[in-house]
Amino acid sequence: MSFVEYSEIIQEGDVVIIFQGHESMMPIKVQSGAQTQTRYGAIRHSSDLIGQRFGSKVTCSKGGWVYVLHPTPELWTVNLPHRTQILYTTDIANITLMLELKPGSVVCESGTGSGSLSHSILRTIAPTGHLHTVEFHAQRAEKAMQEFKEHKVSHLVTVRNQDVCKDGFGITGIADAVFLDIPSPWEAITHAKSAIKRKEIEKTVKIPVVFHKLLGEGGRMNIHYVNERSVSLSRHSHRHTVCSDCLNIFHAEVARADDIAIRYLVLCNSCEHSRFLVDTVTV
Amino acid sequence: MAESVNDSDAESRISFGDYVVLKRGDVFKSVQVENKKKVIFEKQWFFLDNAVGQLFGTRFEIEAGGSLKLKAAKHSGDSLDSKEAGQDNRHILDDGKSQKLTRDDIETLKEQGLKGQEIVQQLIDNSTTFKDKTEFAQEKYIKKKKKNHLRYDTLAQILTLGNIHAGSKILVFETCAGLVLGSVMERMGGFGSVIQMYPGGGPTRAGMESFGFPSHFHETLHEFPLCKVNALLAGTLDLSEKDADGNRRSESSQETSGVSEERSSEPQSMEVSVDPQEEMRRVERERLREQKAQEKKVKMEEKRKKLASAAALLEGRNADGLVIASRFHPCPVLMGLLKFIAPSRPFVVYCQYREPLIECYTKLREQGGAISLRLTDSWLRHYQVLPNRTHPVLLMSGGGGYLLSGTTVAADAAKTRNQQKSEEPVAKRLKLDEISSA
Question: Mind telling me which GO cellular component terms the entry cites (chain A) (predicted)?
Fold first, then answer.
């Protein structure tokens, strides 16, 4: 079993999902000799799980039965132990599409949180991609590392316990996509930009008038996050953002959080050579 | 600032043979860059030759005569009114491979009354743009015959709910001109295999071609006709070699009989005709006929081999996922194809309307073998963002179609009608069963 590859037979050390009924599932770690209590009785790992096929029915000691399922990121999202608020499958699906993730993608993510999105990213970028995820809370970072190991995906991910706003992602110039879900995403823009793959890009034409006015002092523009080539998303509104080229600060209006992603362009009117793609995901 | 990585930007430059997306405003078109080939877009004809070697995301003007010319970047500080605009011949060549969606920004700009204004150059991803294209599928300039109005957020759900990832074996049945197929293949990255089920004569893959996959991806793609599914399930599918007449024959006997036919026809023609020229023509005709028969034989053999290999993949009944997105009623297709899927695997069915999916749901509940059945649709809302004027632009709901998703489980072997349980072994239900069977 692994979260990025299907297998047929349950083995010792696997994480499996016990399905007891609609909206009633739980993850368990399969261990020889262990037992798990369900509402229909006990499941003995050695006889009931190890060697059985994923998807089969398991009869519990009290006579009722459950299904045992192969883990997937989607099942994990609804069954994982929360350490923080998490992202759910609907948003994760949109994020995955808009970040254009595929096998081989190199992705930067912060904060790791409870690892809900992380697992989905890993599934999509396997077997040749890599996830660089940054979590500034030491225990959460540790727990995430532990889970990735148990789920047999640790070769695809690097967890860094640092502050992304101060120290960045720990890599530069190799990311295909950056995802930010932190309280002050604008503070991490510079690092996000340096993490992303650089290509010679022709100078853009200046953005129209309206943006000029908006970007001038006192001008207001709704910005959640800026990046150049890939999508970054934040669930929080903010007030300031920084042009990563000239560090010109322009004011931003607080956005209301609602549904879905939009993109639009912002050009720093002071250095002109920057080009931003602003992305918001509001939930 | 950031140090540039020291790799060449060759992969971000346009080459002959690349699939690119032409963009003008919010109108997109996917074409292949070919030498001296005329391309039509937005009622204009031009050649893409001058685009080769340029970066994706470059803006071009169309000159008289149809050649492309690089559009020089303008500088700031000019007049603030829209004199810069009015560039009717602006075109942007966008890559299929690695860029961004910008339709929204353009729409935003448009809403601000900036029609015809400079559009900042964008790098647009092929797959993402494809999704846009399906949104605009109603528009004339996108030539897709069998189109489903598949919104990109719905497509996103399909790919994630289906757990589409590298290394799996996925069954796809779609009539979205290959868009869903291409998206699935992109998420598989050339690993694993995709078996496309098709109705009628052959699979449609036009949309998939435009993804510009490297050739080894195509080796992972198989196809199998829906009309033979029942035969395969029953074990009665005939995969043996046949000759042009459809009769079962061995290869060697066919060859010799072919040769002997030719030989026997020769003396006949010599007997009948006296004119040497006419005789030559007759021999020539015979030769052509033989050649055609031989070509047909080769083609049929190829087809047979493909069918056999797809059947071999299906026979194990251990596929890892199923995606259905078509204009046909999904129920019979779903019930049939689910039999090829291993237990504990996800499946997703897209339908423009809800009712057929409700039927599927009901059937699945009766029959068993599937859990966590969910019927969903997603709502999409774009925002206009302006100071003090930020508000939703429109709410798309219902128009994105519906999804039925679920997970397969081991079918209950000993299930009889009377003892049919629901998937949830609720205590109450058990008691009722006991009472009724007592």
Answer: nucleus; tRNA (m1A) methyltransferase complex
End-to-end Cα spacing for chain B: 79
Helices (H), B191-250: 206-209, 215-218, 229-234
In sequence order, the 6+-apart residues with CB closer than 8 A to the CB of B346 are A72, A74, B161, B162, B163, B321, B405, B406, B407, B408
Of A5, A96, A256, nearest to B167 by CB-CB distance is A5
| Token pair belonging to B75 | 């500088």
> Which candidate, B164, B168, B433, places its Cα nearest to that of B323?
B164
H/E segment holding residue A44: strand A41-44
Compare CB distances from B410 to A55, A174, A265 and report the shortest one's residue: A55
Return phi, psi of residue A3, to 5°: -75, -10
The pLDDT value given to residue B408 = 98
Average pLDDT, chain B: 75
What confidence score (pLDDT) does residue B275 get?
Answer: 81
pLDDT value of residue B76: 36
Residues 288-327, chain B: which have Cβ within 8 Å of A?
318, 320
Q: Please check whether residue B140 is in contact with residue B326, taking contact to mean a CB–CB distance below 8 angstroms.
A: no
Distance from CA of A124 to the nearest CA of B (A): 6
Pick from B146, B129, B176: nearest CA to B324: B176
Name the CA dihedral angle for B234, B238, B240, B243, rounded to a multiple of 10 degrees: 180
Tokens for B345? Answer: 């695997």
Work out the percent of chain A whose per-residue pLDDT is above 70: 70
Rg of chain B, C-alpha, whole Å: 29
B210-220 CB burial, b ≥16 within 10 A, e <16: bbbbeeebeeb
Measured CA to CA, the distance from residue B213 to residue B219 in angstroms comes to 11
Q: Counting beta carbons within 10 angstroms of the beta carbon of residue B74, is it exposed (0 to 12), middle (13 to 18) or buried (19 or more)? A: middle
Nearest CB neighbour to A97, from listed B159, B168, B382: B159
pTM of the model: 0.70
Whether B410 and chain A come into contact, CB under 8 Å, resolves to yes
Q: In the predicted model, is pLDDT for residue A235 greater than 50?
A: no
Asked if A88 is an interface residue toward chain B (Cβ–Cβ < 8 A), one would say no
Tens digit of each residue's pLDDT (9 = 90 or more) over B321-371: 999 999 999 999 999 999 999 999 999 999 999 999 999 999 999 999 999
Measured between its terminal Cα atoms, the distance across chain A in Å is 33
CB contact under 8 A, A93 and B156: yes
- Give the ipTM: 0.73
CA distances from B281 to A107, B38, B258, B274 (A): 68, 41, 20, 12
Contacts of A70 in chain B (CB under 8 A): 344-345
Task: Using alpha carbons, list the distances in angstroms from residue A120 to A209, A266, B162, B405.
Answer: 41, 30, 12, 17
| B375-405 per-position pLDDT tens digit | 999 888 877 778 888 888 877 766 789 999 9
**In degrees rounded to 5, what are phi and psi of residue B165?**
-155, 170
Question: How many helices and strands (H and E) does chain A possess?
Answer: 7, 15
Report the pLDDT averaged over residues A202-212: 27
Write out chain A residues lying below 8 Å of B80, CB-based.
209, 212
What residues of chain A, 36 to 75, have a C-beta less than 8 Å from chain B?
A: 40, 53-57, 64-70, 72-74
Size of interface A-B (CB pairs under 8 A): 245
DSSP state of A49: I
| CA–CA min distance A180, chain B (Å) | 17
Contact (CB<8Å) A94/B346: no
